[in-house]
Amino acid sequence: MMVTKSLSRMTSICFQFCLLCHPATSIMLTRLFGNTQKDHWIFIYPIAFTVFLTSTTFFFFDYKSILIFEHELHFSVGLLFFPVTFSISNMMQYRYGVLFANTAVRYGFLGDLTLVMIAWLLSHIGERQDYLSVYDEIPTIMLMTFFFVWLSNTINFKLFSVMSGKMHPFFCFFIACLAAECSVSFLSVPVMMYQNHLNSSQFLSIAFIVGYKVFATLILSGIISVGINRNASEKTPFPL
């Protein structure tokens, strides 16, 4: 019960912060770039999805080793913001329908592919070896990203479509996102560890990453749920 209350309070504070920052940011951007159309989120969602997906692609093979109870666990840095992509794709489906979400995910992946391939090409043209060492692995990562994005988003969209309207929004977002993320973790983490010659604590590392994803998805789903409920009760625009 205390955990539920703490989560509710935390998500409410985050939502209030978004409400406070949004008007000030909107005024500043309007002064810089001029007036815009009313619905900004129809553009923000696909762009944000592409940005977070690209961050996963660029940093997928990088890792952070953490010592917990004398066990060295390995966390893929690229997976740090990966849970956000599923929450965004579900918000697109929730607000604009599955066709819009499918279209955004399709071109988000193509945008990711275009950006990283340009980075790969330019790193081979230039003479900086540090750039080349980073971007030389991009084609291999993109092949895996294609499979992981296809698998995880298929699971995510199917589960969310089945549960939407039948369950509380929190559980729709949480279950769909978590199932999709776990399906990727059990495949991607061993690949990352193999690439970096990390032979210790594979199962513990996977368990640690899944635990992180449970926590991250819990927070994201809570924030979204609070926003949806507030919007329904007060009939105010939902900024997420």
Automatic annotation (TrEMBL):
The chain crosses the membrane at residues 42-61, 73-92, 104-122, 134-155, 167-191, 203-228. Keywords: Membrane, Transmembrane, Transmembrane helix. This is VUT family protein. InterPro entries: YhhQ. It comes from the Bacteria. The keyword Repeat does not apply.
